[in-house]
């Protein structure tokens, strides 16, 4: 097991034990069993390392110097440990060889105290194998970071709901329509508060979770585009739902075909193309025929139709494509192009995908909508990695309205591939820096997720 996954494991056991001591009697099997597992993994690690150290710095948690990322898997536990350390002003928590279950349980009990009581409670217990270091000054979270946290929570919640929805349909089990409705409403609200924060999260692609990530990203991109063209709140909720459900018909296609590790044959593509029609059936089954249901099934059916009347399923020129479907057509193509998949292991650089959208506007995409989409994402969308004129490498973290070629970037590496924690530069204001070209982040060992979450 890598140090990274061991770290995630430790965080989830820590969280489980902290929860268990709050709910159960200390002799309860859940408490002792969790403490045992937690103690075991720590002792195994302490055979290799002199200590196990969790450090919180700003919004990040580091486990033995490795930053742990907020991912769907283990999100709640990492968030909990982060918030707990922040609340109690703990900078680092160090566990030393010799740690036993008894001290782990005592530690979790002490962590229940508030920030004023915790230091004396911790000292009173005279821990032999646990050390705590505190942050010196009060560290207030700036508002923009707090907003980012909220948006992130909404995104991951939405991802979880999308995943449950698709998995339940796949297994032919009933689905929780209420929670998907709630999630779409929270996305609509989040979008009005922090459009770029939400768009930044769509730039983080997760290869293993392609189907869910893609569905949610299309929903968010469609929402953002619809908001730009002035859709009402009610219509936003419809397009958000329709975007999330656009590929829902794929649950009617054998899973081995969806996840086939090699290139699909022509016949297999033909089977896959039926997901548009299957989507209609699935949506009627799941949502019924309320207004949002009807919009969603139209989008599912038409989302592979092109502006020039080509595309599938075959349709004549007399049937017009709905605006909702035209929006999803663009967002679906952009997200698919920029994501690595089995049959596209190297995805398009976002700025190239934007150029493809532009090139195919009037052919695949509605030209007006394509234009608004490009204005929304900019020519260098969030998550783009840019070589700069001053020999640094920057990551786009925001757009500047009216300046599609001058986004805001964070300097994250040198051209020699050394990662650095550089400044944030608004290129629309600071004219001293020029973009040379967009590159793949892997070229500079950059993981955009490290800077966008
Ligand atoms: Fe599709
Ligand atoms: Fe799709």
From TrEMBL:
InterPro entries in alphabetical order: HD/PDEase_dom (IPR003607), HD_GYP_dom (IPR037522), HDIG_dom (IPR006675)
Highest taxon listed in the record's lineage: Bacteria
SMART domains on file: HDc (SM00471)
Residue ranges constituting the HD-GYP domain according to the UniProt record: 189-389
The protein, known as: HD-GYP domain-containing protein
The organism of origin for this protein: candidate division WOR-3 bacterium RBG_13_43_14
């Amino acid at each position: 097991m890598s140090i990274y996954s061991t770290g995630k494991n430790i965080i989830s056991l820590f969280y489980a034990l902290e929860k268990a001591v709050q709910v159960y009697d200390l002799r309860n099997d859940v408490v002792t069993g969790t403490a045992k597992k937690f103690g075991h993994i720590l002792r195994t690690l302490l055979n290799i390392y002199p200590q196990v150290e969790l450090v919180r710095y700003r919004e990040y948690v580091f486990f033995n110097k490795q930053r742990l990322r907020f991912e769907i898997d283990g999100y709640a536990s990492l968030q909990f440990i982060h918030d707990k350390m922040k609340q109690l002003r703990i900078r680092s928590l160090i566990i030393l060889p010799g740690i036993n279950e008894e001290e782990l349980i005592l530690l979790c009990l002490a962590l229940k105290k508030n920030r004023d009581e915790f230091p004396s409670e911790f000292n009173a217990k005279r821990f032999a194998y646990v050390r705590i270091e505190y942050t010196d000054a009060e560290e207030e979270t700036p508002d923009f970071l707090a907003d980012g946290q909220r948006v992130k929570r909404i995104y991951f919640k939405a991802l979880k709901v999308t995943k449950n929805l698709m998995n339940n349909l796949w297994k032919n089990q009933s689905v929780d329509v209420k929670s998907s409705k709630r999630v779409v409403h929270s996305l609509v609200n989040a979008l009005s508060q922090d459009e770029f924060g939400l768009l930044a999260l769509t730039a983080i692609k997760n290869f293993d979770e392609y189907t869910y990530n893609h569905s949610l990203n299309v929903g968010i991109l469609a929402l953002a585009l619809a908001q730009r063209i002035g859709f009402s709140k009610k219509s936003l909720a419809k397009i958000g739902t329709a975007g999330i459900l656009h590929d829902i018909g794929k649950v009617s296609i054998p899973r081995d075909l969806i996840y086939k590790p090699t290139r699909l044959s022509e016949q297999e593509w033909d089977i896959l193309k039926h997901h548009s029609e299957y989507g209609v059936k699935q949506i009627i089954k799941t949502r019924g025929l309320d207004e949002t249901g009807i919009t969603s099934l139209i989008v599912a059916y038409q989302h592979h139709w092109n502006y020039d009347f080509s595309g599938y399923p075959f349709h004549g020129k007399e049937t017009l494509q709905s605006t909702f479907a035209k929006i999803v057509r663009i967002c679906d193509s952009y997200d698919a192009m920029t994501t690595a998949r089995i049959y596209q292991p190297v995805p398009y650089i976002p700025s190239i995908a934007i150029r493809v959208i532009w090139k195919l506007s009037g052919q695949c995409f509605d030209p007006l909508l394509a234009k608004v989409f490009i204005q929304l994402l900019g020519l260098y969308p969030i998550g783009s990695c840019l070589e700069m004129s001053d020999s640094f490498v920057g990551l786009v973290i925001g757009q500047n309205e009216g300046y599609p070629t001058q986004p805001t970037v964070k300097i994250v590496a040198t051209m020699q591939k050394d990662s650095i924690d550089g400044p944030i530069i608004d290129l629309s204001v600071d004219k001293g820096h020029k973009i040379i070209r967009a590159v793949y982040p892997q070229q500079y060992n950059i993981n955009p997720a490290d800077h966008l979450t």
